[in-house]
Amino acid sequence: MKRKLLVFALLLLLITTLIPTTISTILTTSAASPDTGWTLVTNARALKGYPNLAEYIWQKNASMAPNGPYDKIGLHRLVNSAVTPKGVIFINPGTYGNGEQLTSNPLSDNYTKTENDSIAIYWANRGFDVYAIDYRTHFVPITLNASQLGFMANWGWDQWISDIREAVTKVKQVSGVDKVFMVGFSFGGIATMNYATIYGKEDLQGIVLLDGGWTAKNQNYNSTNTINLTSTVSQINATGIWGYEYPNLPNFPPQPSGALFTTQFIVQNPNAPANIPGTNQSLPPPINPLTNKTWTNITEWYNVVQSGPFSNTLGGYGNVTVNLQNGAYNDRYWPKLIYAEMGAYKDWTNCPYVAQDFDDKYKDINVPLLGFSSELFGIPSFGNLTNGIGNTDFITKLLPEYGHLDVIQGPYSARDVSEPAYQWMVNHLPPTLFGNTAIGTVYDQNDANAQSISYFSCRKTGVVTDIMAYIDGASSGNCIAAIYAVNGGSAGALLAQSNPVSLGTSFSWVDFKLPTPYNVVAGTTYGLAVMGNVPVNVMEVDGTGQRDHNAVSSYAKGFANPFGLIWGTDDRGAMSIYATGINTSTLGNTNIGTYQDGNDANAKSASYFMCSYTGTVTDIFANVARVDAAGDGAAAIYADNGGSPGALIASTSEATVGTTFSWVDFHLLSPVSVTTGTGYWLAISSNNDLNLNIVAGSGVRVHNGVSNWFSDPFGPVWGADSTGAMSIYAS
Predict the structure, then answer these.
(1) 324-340 pLDDT tens trace
(2) Across the chain, which distance is largest between two alpha carbons, in Å?
(3) 3-state helix, strand, coil in the chain (%, to 5)
């Protein structure tokens, strides 16, 4: 099978040994006030097929020069406004790609995207606030010809990093977070890694690479230290060709009958003859090499010709209809300079032409990373993803038989990419230790220099680093937050006070950082309070408690210790405020295993874990799936008995388990105290066969079938799997 027949020339563009071009000095500082200047051009547009999701689009003139008519950027947001987002995802598209491709599907479209077609839809459906950037290339009219691209002459990494920074800053302002998960597809993975060398510590919760980007200085690249970039830029300018065009196929006729226009033609005329659009001339080759027959239509031609490293449609891992629909929205041009600069910093061990020698700085990136590589494109183009960053939380996944586009829009992309990435991001969110994460519907105001407080039971033993409050000011001012002890149902001693934060006049989640982290214990009730030097508007979540307030102190003096006399109580609900930080009560494997095994119906599987913290656990989470149909499952904690599970300590209530792997929350009937240095067994059972994820090398899984649900004691071990312990943990 000629799977690589007539592959798109983009493969050559992404293998940067092809590009002997040049660069100006890269600026590592972003424009002033990058969150300003945005215009909302689309407000809560409905998404076809997913009525729970809404799309927002902002655009602005990019702050970094050049500042011509096409120096614009866009930002797309896809969100379920009915839920409080779990976290925030920011996507950098690939070469010729844009945020519109990833997020947009208005009701007027004649094509309905699915979760397999869009990583953005998949993650937004599961409660993430998802954003994607439109690069400057998205605003270049496709009607221009190559000789009219002089404005691209200085479009390089200076501009790209600054533009991404502007978009991320806007995202943080809109969503009220201080860090995002940055996802990069193809070239977007390179952009993500380069961005992280400058702003990783400040902006990123984690990195997800989707078939793109290097994670260490590329040892396979021949560093000659010889490229004269100044000379090469002069050569580019002399030719007057400043941009690459959305790649033609080999032997393809000149534009405008090129790849982008042909793709658009096929979308509109899927059953047309396999001819060059607008002519009677056959597209090459004139005969289908797989059947030795004349092409049925132009769609069949496209399916065979494009199958290979870019999309394995003939192998069933790509979808020709989806590829065409998304390909029709590609940008036509891409600046040569940005690839020239990449060739420069890769060619030099210490590149003298750039202020930020990106690949030499990868070792300083200190955020968790998850990387996916397609067998047909990612591995040949970028090599194996090896950990060359400054963080040991580093996971890579190979996708056998996958082509490049299949990673984000193939028939199995939701199962093999979007879902594992979702679980990884959920596991890397800062834990909410206690409080209301929901945005309340009850509005009230707290006087300037007065203190408002609400009370919450701590769900997890941990360390509070931040207090998040959904508030705004009656006017611009400053605000602080605090944690109080609770005595007899009222606020008592002051335990911790945050750093001050500037307060705006629009409601958002405001992040109050504690100067020193504060330890909290599961099962203990704490108070969370706010106070401003201007009146503070608060939202309360109906029916979740109360808000007490007093005016004993003043903003200038800080929170009173103790809280003092309660001047009034609003019992409609507790405030939208919560404490977040580090969960120190986790017991078990929080990673999703790469090895799967089964557990028989009505049997139970258990894995052993040593407890690292003394505290209380309230839930058991297991990454499992039922085999035949959705139904009930339960989990339990067993004591250790000489290396085997012994006495039953506690079991959970039943929870619904679906047929697709996911983290299932099994709630303990009552909190269980665990002790550091003690070993425990976490067990799972269902009345249907279960599929289990196993984390290789992390321990053992034992199983038996003595009883329905959980016997006490566990009973004779019927078998053991020493490959690893299950993806299961108590928190």
Answers:
(1) 999 999 999 999 999 98
(2) 89
(3) 20, 35, 45
Decide: pTM greater than 0.90.
no
Q: Which residue's structure tokens are 């071990």?
A: 717
C-alpha span between 417 and 437 (Å, rounded): 28
Q: State the burial class of residue 444 (Cβ atoms within 10 Å of its Cβ: 0-12, 13-18, 19+).
A: middle
Using an 8 Å Cβ cutoff, are 602 and 687 in contact? yes
Q: Distance (Å, rounded) from C-alpha 19 to C-alpha 33?
A: 35
Token pair, residue 24, equals 């100006």
For helices 259-268 and 298-306, what crossing angle results, to 10°? Answer: 140
Residue 444 exposure: Cα atoms within 13 Å on the Cβ side = 22
Q: Which of 477, 539, 534 is nearest to 507 (CA)?
A: 539
Burial label for 656, CB within 10 Å (0-12, 13-18, 19+), is exposed
Which burial class, exposed, middle or buried, applies to 5 when counting CB atoms under 10 A from its CB (0-12, 13-18, 19+)?
middle
Closest to 167 in 3D by CA, of 156, 151, 180:
180
How many CB atoms are closer than 10 A to CB 105?
25
Instruction: Mark 307-327 as b/e (b = at least 16 C-beta within 10 Å).
Output: bbbbbbbbbebbbbebbbbbb
Q: Give burial (CB, 10 Å; 0-12/13-18/19+) of 253.
A: middle
Q: Are 188 and 212 in contact (CB under 8 A)?
A: yes
**Beta carbons within 8 Å of 222's beta carbon, 6+ residues apart:** 17
Are 73 and 38 in contact by the 8 Å Cβ rule? The answer is no
CB 340 within 8 A of CB 18: no
Residues 6+ away with beta carbon under 8 Å from 112: 48, 49, 105
**Radius of gyration of the CA atoms of the chain, in A:** 28
Instruction: Quickly state the pLDDT bin for 35 (edges 50, 70, 90).
Output: low
Q: How far apart are CA 623 and CA 633, in angstroms?
A: 12
For 54, the enclosing helix (H) or strand (E) is: strand 50-61
Backbone angles phi, psi at 649, to 5 degrees: -90, -45
Token pair for 649: 């300590």
Residue 434: C-alpha distances to residues 426, 485, 495, 522, 659 (Å): 17, 13, 15, 9, 31
Secondary structure (3-state) at 238: helix
What is the pairing mode between strands 536-542 and 129-134?
unpaired
Cβ atoms 730, 588 nearer than 8 A: yes
What pLDDT score does 5 carry? 32
Q: Is the pLDDT of residue 643 over 90?
A: no
